[in-house]
Design a protein that fits this description.
The complex is a heterodimer of chains A (83) and B (272).
Chain A: H1 3-22, E1 36-39
Chain B: H1 11-52, H2 59-97, H3 104-140, H4 147-161, E1 165-166, E2 173-174, E3 184-187, E4 194-198, H5 201-217, H6 219-227, H7 233-250, H8 255-271
Antiparallel strand pairs in B: 1-2, 3-4
Helix pairs in contact in B: 1-2, 1-3, 2-3, 4-5, 5-7, 6-7, 7-8
The chains are: A mainly alpha (83), B mainly alpha (272).
Chain lengths: 83, 272
């Protein structure tokens, strides 16, 4: 391969590298966030969300947090639907 | 009237066959040189970009690798097009003008064409093998991520923070009972409030990288299974079982899902 062709390969590679480095990632950059703890209070009575016959409604006043019926997942189970 | 008894002689065709073969060999030599040159230049760049890429998914490296693989695919397409047009084209055209293979002259020319076809196709096969090796070199250039260290760091990080959370309702101290990789409810032992624990980005990445880490740990078994000829399904089963066991050790909560995946892998072995 001649010097000119070598140069062409090198310059192509350089362009490709720049494009790869500058390309926007789908979904944006990954932000590193530390572990955190959060809780949802009942908007009706202000009580903390406690487990009593399920999690989908307030253990104290019966306020419905969500209408969705939960199915079995890794940590959320069907038993978490309030009765 | 029909040319019976006239000897068939076509020196122009012989010259064209020889010339086409030489040009085909020279063309593939050039393409191979270009592939070699590109790989030689690209491998250090791939290593550098991989090392400098802060993205946990190494997407910049992925973009660069895809671009290079695209270039190699383009070179492969060029060779395929040239083979179709120049080699196959000449063979088809020649077969139309030379006498039938049953005649003495026809037999000679068909033999010539056969030799030409085999020489050109064999050369193309060598080119394809070299291209395949180049593709593999590019893929392996950056090496593997050190997932074991990243995993150990996350285990240590979890041990350091697991007692440092408070209930958002009553302020009572909460100990995270085990390492979680996705958001989960954790009950406050004092007021029973269900707090939502969201693991750090690093801990969430453990779940994402768990299979790759399990594969790294059992790489020796995979290599043994892949290199053994003839193919031995028992070695593949042994590898899959060991890999899934490691995977379950890293993310025990996913064991149920992993076992389903294992069943599918076993079915796939049966399909070969």
């Amino acid at each position: 391969m001649s010097d000119e062709e070598k140069k062409r390969a090198q310059s192509y590679l350089e362009k490709l590298k720049q494009t790869a480095l500058q390309q926007q990632h789908y979904g944006g950059e990954i932000k590193q966030t530390p572990a955190s703890m959060d809780a949802r209070d009942c908007p009706n009575c202000g009580a903390g969300r406690a487990f009593r016959h399920g999690l989908t409604s307030c253990a104290y006043c019966g306020f419905v947090f969500m209408d969705t019926t939960l199915t079995d997942g890794i940590y959320i189970k069907k038993e978490n639907n309030s009765k | 009237m029909f040319g019976f008894g006239r000897k068939y002689d076509n020196p122009a065709l012989i010259a064209e066959i020889n010339e086409t073969q030489q040009r085909w060999f020279a063309f593939l030599d050039k393409l191979e040189a270009r592939v070699g040159e590109m790989c030689a230049a690209a491998i250090p760049e791939l290593k550098t970009v991989f090392a400098q890429d802060k993205d946990p998914y190494k997407r910049a490296h992925g973009h660069l690798l895809s671009g290079l693989q695209g270039q190699l695919s383009l070179i492969r397409t060029k060779a395929n097009d040239a083979r179709e047009e120049k080699i196959n084209g000449l063979i088809y055209a020649a077969e139309g003008v030379i006498p039938p293979i049953t005649s003495a002259e026809g037999s000679k020319y068909h033999q010539l064409l056969h030799t030409f076809r085999m020489a050109c196709f064999n050369r193309h096969h060598i080119f394809e093998e070299k291209l395949h090796v180049a593709m593999e070199k590019l893929q392996a250039a950056a090496g593997e991520r050190d997932l074991e260290t990243a995993y150990r760091e996350q285990l240590e990080a979890f041990e350091a923070i697991k007692d440092k959370f408070n209930c958002q309702q009553c302020g009572g101290n909460i100990t995270i009972p085990k390492m979680f990789f996705i958001a989960t409810y954790v009950s406050c032992p004092f007021c029973q409030t269900q707090n939502t624990f969201l693991p750090s980005t690093g801990a969430q990445m453990v779940l994402h990288d768990a299979r790759a880490l399990a594969e790294q740990r059992t790489a020796h078994l995979r290599q043994l299974a892949e290199r053994t000829q003839p193919r031995n399904p028992d070695l593949h089963r042994q590898y899959y079982r060991a890999m899934i066991n490691e995977w379950n050790k890293i993310v025990p909560d996913m064991a149920g899902e992993n076992e389903k995946f294992y069943e599918r892998l076993l079915k796939d072995i049966g399909h070969y």
